[in-house]
Structures are given as structure tokens and as C-alpha cells.
Design goal:
About 25% of the residues lie in helices and about 40% in strands. The chain is an alpha+beta fold. The chain has one domain.
Length: about 230
């Protein structure tokens, strides 16, 4: 069976599944995400209308509200180290509590897709196919870039290890090296859905996304952990 046939079969299997990536990266299965959101930005650059789209596949439900709250809680815990002179044990208990209040504490994935449609007239839509853009190339057509982040369990032990300077808690980032994203449906500032076919140095993944608009997602970080 050809790669194209496998991709078509995977999309058929994933049809209606919402936010999901089927594939193996670094010998780890990706799978389903709890939520999908997107943000869109319109602006004029050198006299040309631009329209950028950012898709996030997230490990927690209601991520438009929950993710900023998680980041705020982690930042507050970090600040408390100095303000309250917290010992490692007390700080990591606080850190662990922030995680468990916001999501399941297990290994998780996050995905970020950046789509740029250019040049684009004011009345043009955003549906259609977006090929991958090499980080070092210049392209005046609709293009995308993508990153997939893998986090290990945000455990008390992981916190203690970083607090003592033994290791850093954070994700392994897998940058896309090829593929296509197709936007199939889009209602401005409301919802967007489509299909994904991605290649990475450490594997491949394909799937679907069904996202809702989140105005606060413009500057979300892909890498976070102890604080920001």
C-alpha cells in the first residue's frame, strides 16, 4: 500500500474524531487530544493583506480558559520561591497541586500549527491546501509550519530534580520537516477544521482538527514547566 493510500485510509478512520494525530514519533504513539483551539490574525504588510492562522491541539478540556490558568498558577508558584523563601519540598507540593488542578498528570502531547496565507485579497477565504514551508526558504504561497511537543509526567520528582539543578522539566520538541495541512471549513473568529499530514525526522503523523476560536491564544508558549 502506498503512502498516499495509507494517508487516505487514516483520514477515513479518523473522520469525525475531532482533534487527533495517528502516528508514531520517537517510537511513541501520539493519539487523541482533549481540545482544539485556533487564533487568527489579519494585518497589512508592505501593502499586502495578510491572514495568519494558529492551531493548537491541547491536552486539557476547555483549554482557552484552563491553559492560561495553568500558566498563571505555575508562574505564581515560581514567584513564591523568592517571596516566601519556599524549600524544595514546599515548592514542589505547590507545583504539583497546580498541575493536578488543571489536567491529568500523565505524559502528554501538544501540537502547534502556524498557517500563513499570502498574498491574500481582503475577500479571499482561507480554506484549501497549505504545503510545508522550510524554515530557510521564502515562499509567497499559502504555507504552514508545525511543532509537536512531548512532555513527560509533571511529577513531584521531576519538580524536585529541577529545583536542585539536576535536570530541566520541559518538552521534547519535534519540528515538522514536510507534509500538508488542508483547511476544509472556516467561519471567521468562530471555528476552523481540517486534515493534517505531517513528517518529522523521528516519524510521521496524520489526522484531523476541529477547533474553536480563542482570542487569548495569540502568544501561548509551547515550552513551559516551572513557571514560564
Amino acid at each position: 500500500m502506498t503512502r498516499a493510500s495509507l494517508f487516505a485510509l487514516s483520514l477515513l478512520t479518523l473522520s469525525g474524531c475531532g482533534n487527533q494525530l495517528s502516528g508514531t514519533i520517537d517510537d511513541l504513539e501520539v493519539g487523541e487530544f482533549a481540545d482544539g483551539i485556533y487564533f487568527e490574525l489579519r494585518y497589512v504588510e508592505d501593502g499586502i493583506d495578510q491572514h495568519d492562522l494558529f492551531v493548537w491541539l491541547m491536552p486539557m478540556e476547555d483549554s482557552c480558559t484552563v491553559f492560561p490558568s495553568l500558566l498563571s498558577g505555575l508562574a505564581d508558584a515560581r514567584t513564591a520561591i523568592d517571596e516566601q523563601s519556599l524549600a524544595a519540598e514546599d515548592y514542589c507540593a505547590m507545583w504539583d497541586s497546580v498541575w493536578t488542578e488543571h489536567m491529568d498528570t500523565a505524559p502528554f502531547w501538544m501540537a502547534r500549527y502556524a498557517l500563513r496565507a499570502r498574498p491574500r485579497g481582503a475577500d479571499a477565504g482561507v480554506t484549501g491546501s497549505y504545503p510545508w514551508l522550510s524554515r530557510t526558504s521564502v515562499n509567497d504561497n499559502p504555507v504552514f509550519d508545525a511543532d509537536l511537543a512531548r512532555y513527560e509526567t509533571p511529577s513531584f520528582a521531576a519538580c524536585a530534580s529541577e529545583f536542585e539543578g539536576d535536570s530541566l522539566y520541559g518538552p521534547t520538541i519535534h519540528a515538522a520537516t514536510g507534509g500538508t495541512i488542508e483547511v476544509t471549513d472556516h467561519t471567521s473568529d468562530e471555528e476552523m477544521s481540517g486534515r493534517i499530514d505531517l513528517s518529522f525526522e523521528a516519524g510521521e503523523a496524520s489526522g484531523t482538527f476541529e477547533t474553536t476560536f480563542c482570542p487569548g491564544a495569540a502568544d501561548w508558549p509551547l515550552e513551559f514547566g516551572l513557571g514560564l
